[in-house]
Write a structure and sequence with these properties.
The complex is a heterodimer.
Chain A (H helix, E strand, L loop, with lengths): L7 E8 L10 H16 L8 E5 L6 H8 L6 E5 L6 H13 L6 E8 L17 H12 L4 H16 L3 H16 L13 H6 L2 E4 L1 E2 L8 E10 H4 L7 E9 L19 H14 L8 E3 L6 H9 L8 H4 L18 H4 L6 H12 L11 E5 L6 E8 L1
Parallel strand pairs in A: 2-3, 2-4, 9-10
Antiparallel strand pairs in A: 1-7, 1-8, 4-7, 5-6, 8-11, 10-11
Chain B lengths: L3 E10 L11 E8 L4 E5 L13 E9 L2 E8 L4
Antiparallel strand pairs in B: 1-2, 1-4, 2-3, 4-5
The chains are: A alpha/beta, B mainly beta.
Chain lengths: 388, 77
């Protein structure tokens, strides 16, 4: 049977600086990140014949291709939605390369999400899609932000598992400690204490300010080629050991209110099942993980969904610095999206690549296999990356 | 539909301000007695009374020019 396992590799990564006001267009951010990623790989825009991104990226593939000076695209693909699709854009790149549709596909994301619009703002009804019709009803009831939707799901998680604000705070403090020693992080040199976390203002109870990912400007890109070709390029290949998407029945966009389990578990669990089957690995084989932190408490749910601990036990799993530099499962070593930047998880994927290469600023020893997930509580995706 | 149900989960929205609502604004999901999950505002309930599992009753109201529905605490039987 055909499998995607180990057929392709990430040969290059690139990014702009992460800021609150980039001072240039989203197209510039995407193009700069792509050119940087190609340079990292030892390739040029002329080598690119495929592009992939997520549907909410405002940069059309053809415009991006014009901007970088490409020759001919034979593959371009967009993943529905937003934060659940970052890993899937890499997966689609891998699928295109593995099937011979394209030879060199760049997954990219470029956004001025802080300076030109803000995802934290109340939602406004726009196009009359099925999803927006549901959101319009929520808007009329006074539920208008991603934080409020996730807050409902997380309060239920706390009720069912006994997880407390202090447990979420421990994860936030850990990630801000990683960010503090990452010069590329917006919160470089700005760690927080548990007291500061507990005293940060409520956004949507039980979610506090320091539970919420940042709003960021920036661009990130990832170059995917065949594993064979990657061996001859500039960087040590980082194999795409496994990749999967998941959207079980009753999955909605953060507002998973109409099923038995409203916690952001099912989508991640569906992806996890596929990843372990494809990779032949178990959770214990993963040396570290990038776990999507649109909101910090979702990290605990994902630890359970990806099988690092049993359901309801993440609050115990994370104790004693388990997610830290010397812990049993270091998580979000770039500081995550609360600490480094929120580029829809694409910056987490590049961190996973650096960890496998051994070039991260907060490098964990001997990262042979690493998990990188996209947003939970929405149709989602994830990768397992491995050393060649 | 009788409009009765149990509060399954909720949030109290603090920030950013929402046009047309007083802050902070409670809103949650209710499992109606008929078995259906229903989302509704909870701003008829004092914040310190909100609790998962509490019995609720739907009520109708106007919000601006629009007819709307929300939940209040059910009176003890």
């Amino acid at each position: 049977m055909f499998t995607l396992r180990d057929r392709t590799a990430i040969a290059g990564i690139g990014a702009t600086e992460f800021s609150k006001n980039s001072g240039r267009s989203e197209l510039s951010l995407a193009a700069e990140a792509i050119v940087a990623a190609l340079h990292d790989a030892g390739l040029t825009p002329a080598d690119v014949d495929g592009l992939a991104t997520i549907a909410v990226d405002n940069n059309g593939e053809n415009e991006v291709f014009r901007a970088i000076g490409g020759k001919e695209l034979t593959f371009f693909s967009r993943i529905s939605g937003g934060g659940g699709g970052g890993a899937a854009s890499v997966m689609h790149a891998a699928m295109a390369v593995a099937t011979g549709v394209a030879d060199c596909v760049v997954a990219y994301r470029g956004m001025n999400e802080r300076s030109e619009y803000r995802y934290g703002n109340p939602m406004a009804f726009t196009m009359p899609t099925a999803e927006n019709a549901i959101f319009a009803y929520q808007i009329a009831q006074g539920m208008q932000t991603a934080a409020a939707m996730m807050a409902v799901c997380i309060r239920r998680y706390m009720h069912e598992t006994g997880a407390r604000a202090e447990d979420f705070g421990a994860v936030a403090v850990n990630q801000r400690a990683f960010a503090a020693t990452n010069p590329n992080a917006f919160f470089h040199k700005r760690p927080i204490t548990l007291d500061e976390y507990m005293n940060s203002r409520m956004i949507a109870d039980p979610l506090r300010l320091y539970d919420c990912c940042q709003e960021s400007d920036g661009g990130v890109a990832v170059v995917v080629v065949s594993a064979r070709r990657a061996r001859d390029l500039k960087q040590p290949p980082v194999l795409i050991r496994a990749a999967a998407q998941g959207s079980p029945n009753q999955t909605m966009y953060l507002n998973n209110f109409y099923r038995d389990d409203v916690t952001p578990f099912e989508e991640a669990h569906a992806v996890a099942r596929q990843l372990y089957a494809m990779s032949g690995l178990r959770p214990a084989d993963l040396r570290a993980a990038i776990i999507y932190d649109h909101f910090v408490p979702s990290v605990l749910v994902s630890l359970e969904a990806y099988g690092f601990c049993a359901r309801g036990e993440a609050k115990d799993f994370i104790k004693d610095g388990a997610l830290g530099r010397n812990g049993r499962l270091p998580v979000n070593m770039n500081g995550g999206q609360i600490g480094e930047a929120y580029i829809h998880g694409m910056n987490g994927i590049t961190e996973a690549v650096r960890q496998v290469r051994g070039t991260a600023v907060n490098q964990i020893e001997d990262v042979d296999n690493i998990l990188a997930t996209s947003g939970s509580g929405v149709p989602t995706s994830a990768l397992i990356l491995s050393a060649a | 539909m009788g409009g009765q149900g149990i509060l399954h989960s909720y949030t109290v929205h603090h920030h950013p301000p929402l046009p047309g609502f007083n802050m902070p604004h409670p809103v949650g999901i209710v499992t109606l007695d008929e078995g259906v999950r229903f989302l509704g505002a909870l701003d008829a309930i004092a914040l310190d009374r909100l609790a998962i599992g509490m019995q609720l009753q739907a009520e109708f109201l106007r919000r601006g020019a629009v007819a709307s529905v929300r939940f209040r605490a059910a009176r003890a039987a």
